[in-house]
Design goal:
By secondary structure, the chain is mainly β. It is built from two helices and 37 strands. It folds into two domains: 340 residues, 5 Propeller (Tachylectin-2, Chain A), CATH 2.115.10; 121 residues, Trefoil (Acidic Fibroblast Growth Factor, subunit A). A hairpin with a 7-residue loop joins strand 17 and strand 18.
């Protein structure tokens, strides 16, 4: 979503797999590993939605900095979206209805037809935001002709945006953000079953009102909902607070077999699940969606800036970039979002092939192999000539290096020849899916030791790792 200071100030003045989200296919058997996406995936595209359709292609739409059009790109891979041609599906008219700001589109395939939900203001009143539905008249979402079907009909004619649609146990629901008369917030989340793409089947349920300290920093906001149905539960993420570095993700959870229209079925996480990370230089992560990668693994899609200080009005700061990263799960089945992983190729986790529950990790600048928080176990592969270097995402200026004693630790990556020599690794991918990291300086392969990480002979069984 593109909720910014200007429009919120305007609002304040005016106020004185039983289920499959449309953006998430169920996990499929693993496919051959392709090139890892790099962040930012697409620059200057906020409120991004990516999903893998039944045709096997990835579709992406997002808000553009000009807020004047609806766009779509597609690719056979997530990484390919970065350079995919972008089609303009629709442009706002020069005046009148829908001639204001155009925000937060979402593409959905409903009963064999393509639809796009989006928020739009009016000419002369760009902040008079309401939700509308665009319909494709053809079978191809990129080349087909699109037309405005109508406005989403809700109980109140008020600020409305960020609609998402999902199917749960045979019922198609819509969840959206809206300012409700008499409730002193900027926006709350609502849920209702759909009768048609533009009409509700029954009165909506108010799912949540922003009241917690992290939901009301700058503005009282709950918006940008995204459903994820996994592990017997429906997880519904949403974005909260002002769209600067305070922007973050919260989460509601309901049992898979619950009555979703009963507010008592939902539990709000007491703390945000995804926040700004100064270690990785990603600020204001939010307005997410979910998809799966080519191997069927869940992926978090979101936007975030590379810097904290914003010059001028955030509405006209164009640098909220589309980002992606793997989504992991805790032992209890709940999502572990970790931290925004930062710019560059997506990081991976490495566990000894013989001990899948343990991971290579850096904690307090020390390398170990064992249990650790998710961010501590994520390492990015950096190019170093014809070799690679491993760098922990929480210490992006450091790399794994081999010492004269063949012990392995972290050193600051100052770009010197000595660091490049000590940190240069060759990744050897075995037919069974395992990985070996061959050290040029150590003359062997990286392997766990009793006190951390060391170098052993190349073919030692302990030098086999699984990448995740």
């Amino acid at each position: 979503m593109t909720f910014d200071l200007s429009r919120r100030l305007f609002l304040g003045a005016a106020a004185a797999v039983t289920a499959t989200p449309a953006g998430v296919l169920a996990a499929k058997p693993a496919a051959k590993r392709g090139a890892l996406p790099e962040n930012p995936l697409v620059r200057q595209r906020a409120d991004a939605q990516i999903f893998r359709h039944a045709d096997g292609l990835y579709y992406m739409t997002a808000s553009v900095p000009e807020y004047d059009r609806l766009i779509l790109r597609r690719s056979r891979t997530i990484a390919g979206l970065s350079t995919a041609e972008e089609a303009v599906l629709w442009r706002r008219p020069a005046s009148g209805r829908l001639a204001g700001y155009i925000w937060a589109p979402e593409l959905h395939f409903i009963d064999g037809r393509w639809y796009m939900y989006f928020a739009a203001g009016d000419g002369g009143a760009p902040f008079r935001i309401r939700t509308y539905v665009l319909r494709c008249l053809g079978a191809d979402a990129i080349t087909g002709t699109w037309e405005v079907m109508g406005q989403l009909e809700t109980p109140w004619d008020t600020f409305t945006l960020d609609s998402t649609v999902f199917l749960h146990r045979g019922t198609r629901y819509i969840c959206w953000a809206q300012k409700e008369p008499g409730v002193e917030t900027n926006s709350n989340l609502y849920l209702a079953p759909l009768a048609t793409p533009t009409t509700l089947k029954r009165a909506p349920t108010r799912l949540t009102v922003p009241t917690l300290p992290w939901e009301i920093r700058g503005f009282k906001v709950a918006e940008g909902a995204a459903p994820l149905i996994r592990n017997g539960r429906l997880f519904l993420t949403y974005s909260a607070s002002a769209t600067d570095a305070r922007y973050c993700l919260g989460m509601l959870t309901a049992p898979d077999d619950a009555d979703l229209m009963d507010p008592r079925a939902w539990t709000k996480s007491p703390d945000p699940v995804f926040v700004t990370s100064r270690e990785t230089s990603v600020y204001g992560p939010g307005h997410n969606s979910f998809t799966v990668d080519e191997q069927g693994r869940d992926v978090l899609v979101y936007h975030g800036r590379d810097y904290e200080a914003i010059k001028g009005d955030p509405l006209f700061d164009p640098n909220r970039h589309t980002r992606v990263q793997r989504l992991y799960y805790r032992a209890d089945g709940t999502p572990d979002f970790g931290i925004p992983v930062g710019n560059g190729a997506l990081p991976e986790r490495f566990s000894p092939a013989a001990a899948p529950g343990r991971f290579l990790a850096q904690v307090g600048g020390m390398l170990s192999v064992g249990a650790a928080a998710l961010p501590a176990t994520q390492f990015r592969s950096l190019k170093a000539g014809d070799a690679l270097m491993l760098s922990p995402i929480e210490q992006p200026h450091h790399v794994v290096a081999v010492g004269a004693d063949r012990k392995v630790g972290l050193v600051r990556n100052d770009g010197s020849a000595d660091v490049l020599r000590r940190a240069a690794l060759i990744r050897e991918n075995a037919p069974d899916g395992s990985v070996r990291w061959l050290s040029r300086a150590g003359g062997g392969a990286l392997a766990p030791t009793a006190d951390g990480l060391g170098v052993t002979v190349r073919n030692d069984a302990t030098a086999r790792w699984r990448a995740d």
